[in-house]
From TrEMBL:
Belongs to the UPF0718 family. The chain crosses the membrane at residues 30-50, 62-91, 140-164, 171-191, 224-245, 257-273, 319-342. It is found in: Cell membrane. It comes from Kribbella capetownensis. It is a multi-pass membrane protein. This is Permease. Residues 1-19 have a biased composition (Low complexity). GO terms for cellular component: plasma membrane. InterPro entries: DUF318, UPF0718. Residues 1-25 are annotated as: Disordered. Its main location: membrane. Keywords: Cell membrane, Membrane, Transmembrane, Transmembrane helix.
Length: 343
């Protein structure tokens, strides 16, 4: 039976404080929806618009790749958003506090492993982690969950398997690398002993009049509009990269393992693609090695421009300026190690 406390906990996990009767889409959601309409229009009518700027073959290639990546990824994006919204609305944050071991060092790997069975997008991972901290979960474990949930959940692993057919080693490498990164950063948080001065504990925010179905609906719409916008931007960037950038330059960058890993890692930070869809963008970057594309898929769900902004607003700038660079470096190193081992 639903209770006001459960509804408040679910609302806190979703980071929703508005009246449930108000329209869920925000200004940024409208901007991303406009981006989706614009890019689909470019895919359909770009040949006429850009005649004289690009060749006809280039426009056809761009449109084909953009639409192909978007259509392939969209079912997984929808499934991930639905599961994430259900988790946010119907599973109270107190459940995780009770399920984790009391010892912080043991709670970290358990929290990391829970991401395998608990779907959630990276947009929702920050408020969910904040809710866990407010329920007494050690920050190290909450951080481990923040990193693992959007990176190794079933929808992400399934989409990776579809994007890389016949290459199960890519799925294994992604799961192993992301799991390792989340645990390493959780344990590092414990070892530094300075987390208390870096982390601004998030405030408790309750919306007692928000029902579970209202939370589910608003979370689903919010996450889909945001993630859909980032998906089409990523698909457009991948298509543009393959059409505009000279093949010789791409081959030169891709020929250096370290440089290609760094380039695709930085690209993941800038593109901020939803984790349920980033594997399809990575699969389209065929000029690069599997290890470089692994770095793209590992970095994206745990450190990108939107996550840095969310972490700054939730946990404070002192946390974000330390956590984001550390996450990026460890993700790159882990991708190189696991990639050389498995790929």
């Amino acid at each position: 039976m639903s209770t006001p406390t459960d509804a408040a906990e679910a609302t806190e996990s979703a980071g929703t404080t508005a009246d449930p009767g108000s329209p869920p889409p925000t200004g940024s959601s409208i901007a991303f929806t406009a981006t989706l309409v614009l890019l689909v229009g470019l895919a359909l009518f770009g040949r006429r618009i850009f005649t004289g700027v690009f060749t006809g073959d280039g426009i056809r290639t761009w449109a084909t790749m953009f639409v192909g990546v978007t259509i392939q990824a969209m079912p997984f994006l929808v499934l991930g958003v639905l599961l994430s919204a259900a988790l946010t609305a119907f599973v109270p944050a107190s459940f995780f506090a009770k399920a984790l071991p009391k010892h912080p060092a043991l709670a970290v790997p358990v929290a990391s492993a829970s991401g395998v069975v608990l779907p959630g997008c990276e947009c929702a991972s920050v408020p969910v982690s904040a809710a866990l901290m407010n329920r007494g979960v050690t920050p190290a474990a909450a951080i481990a969950f923040l990193l693992s949930a959007p990176a190794i959940n079933p929808v992400v692993l399934a989409s990776t398997a579809v994007a890389f057919p016949g290459q199960p080693k890519v799925v294994v490498a992604r799961a192993v690398t992301s799991l390792a990164v989340s645990m390493i950063l959780g344990w590092l948080w414990l070892l530094t002993g300075k987390g208390g001065s870096w982390l601004r504990m998030p405030k408790n925010r309750h919306a007692d009049d928000a029902g579970k179905l209202d939370v589910f609906r608003s979370s689903m719409l919010h996450d889909f509009l945001h993630a859909g916008g980032f998906l089409v931007i990523g698909a457009a960037a991948a298509a543009t990269l393959n059409v505009v950038v000279p093949r010789s330059w791409l081959d030169q960058v891709a020929g250096s393992l370290l440089l290609s890993v760094l380039i695709l890692g930085l690209l993941a930070v800038l593109l901020a693609i939803c984790s349920e869809a980033d594997a399809f963008v990575a699969a389209s970057l065929t000029q690069f090695s599997l290890t470089a594309r692994l770095a793209f898929m590992v970095v994206g769900p745990i450190v990108d421009v939107k996550l840095i902004a969310l972490q700054t607003g939730t946990f404070g700038p002192r946390f974000a300026v330390r956590f984001a660079p550390a996450t990026f470096v460890i993700a790159i190193l882990a991708s190189l190690v696991v990639g050389s081992w498995l790929l």
